[in-house]
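Worked Example 4.2. Consider the chain below.
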Amino acid sequence: MAKNNQTVLALTLLITTSLIGIFAVLAWIGYSLTRSKSEGKSPGNTNLVNTTTNSSSLKQIEITTARNVDYSQLQKYLQNKHI
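Applying the procedure from the previous section yields the following structure tokens:
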């Protein structure tokens, strides 16, 4: 009977440590994913649109981005639609 109790205890400990390991790996993966998403955003570049002189005219808005995306075609489209 004592051997059965030791076997049950050993299996219980093995299953428990396996589950803890699985949860730890899942937590680490979740942490890594959220960290990589937050690193993709630049906290210092929150001001992505800079107005040069007058914000009421689309011709005078300079668009700058953190990833150096060229928005000149969009800007031309918007200028032609709103004139």
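The longest helix spans residues 2-40. Residues 51-55 have pLDDT under 50 and may be disordered. Compare this with Example 4.1 before moving on.
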